[in-house]
Predict the structure.
Amino acid sequence: MTRSFNLTIGYAVLWAVLLLGTACTKPSIPPTGELNVSQSPSSGTLQPPQKTPFGKLPDGRPVSLYTLEVPGGWKATITDYGAILTSFAVPLSGAVVGGQTVDVVLGFDSLDGYLAEHPYFGAICGRVSNRIAAGAFELNGKQYQLAINNGAHHLHGGRVGFDKKLWQATPRLSESGPALDLQMVSADGDEGYPGQVTATVTYTLTPAGELRVEMSATTDAPTIINMVHHSYWNLGGHASGTIRDHELTVFADQYTPVDAGSIPTGLFAAVENTPFDFRPEAKPAVALGAAIDALPPSADGKNAGGIDHNFLVRDPQVDGQVDGQQQGKEVGSTMRSHAILREPQSGRTMEIISDQPGIQVYTGNYLDGTLKGKDGAVYAKQNGICLETQKYPDSIHNTDWPSTRLDPGQTYRHTMVHRFTTGD
């Protein structure tokens, strides 16, 4: 899927026009895929992440919380349990250094909430995120059966996926800002997957307030990998209620339709004239409520309605990824904008930039008000949105889709950046 130079330039101009009028100027995405990092603020110095206790697992192993902070009010907290982002503080528009901030990530105040059943708040999901039909696949002529944990299917790595592992954490101060390296080993046969996999995640908070998430993995035997970061975002604040008024832009002309079990049908469909049309050409930007209302719940209650679909990001140079795998090279693609989320009352925005071919948009349809989160907040239906950059769901059953296969000697890589403005 090769696109012309003129079309690429056209989209770049379109992105710039879309973002005019926001209070904070955002740096462009350099053509090399490397991200601009602002110079250090005039006041304050950068420090490595600070470690504090966060409780213990049932087997007695201690869990820690790491705080990444830069001058200006930007702050992220991450726990080594599940490599979970537990909070992300954005300074209020016009706030002085050290002034008020708003936490825009749904989550819990303590480890207990994450140890109980929850919908993957802030977690790193794997080995393979999203769904695999019937939890079964064939690799090198051998059949594998994975754990079934979502109806008749496999979801987000199974019953005890990467989101429920204790990762080894190493805090450091990188050239880009405070960073946290997390690593864990998934044994051969873990949740039914073949091969021993070593997975790594690095969270970095830049002086500009960008949250960078870099995921990688290697294996000692052929396997499949599709890791995602699964935060629920509400730019009005985690306790501010519905995201129906949030405006969403997705740089995609097609999406993957799904069946009643949320498994892709194998087809690509145009977003035009559908509730999934979040293209930047839309003026004004599309409010999520309109799309949610156009996708009502099913009469039997099995489908909660709303959006839970994968979008094919424009200019997805993924053919090189498949070729790279065949040649034993690292798997990667170009960094480009996938989506922009805006909260209209504050004007606060978040842009998602990644090197992956797809992005799952999930509007928190199964949140039901039974979870009590941070500060006693109750998370009801559509109180948060997930924007998960990824390979397409169930790719293992669609041979012409971006491959999730990983072989020994190769390195799976996945980078996503959350870039914010503080508001109007």
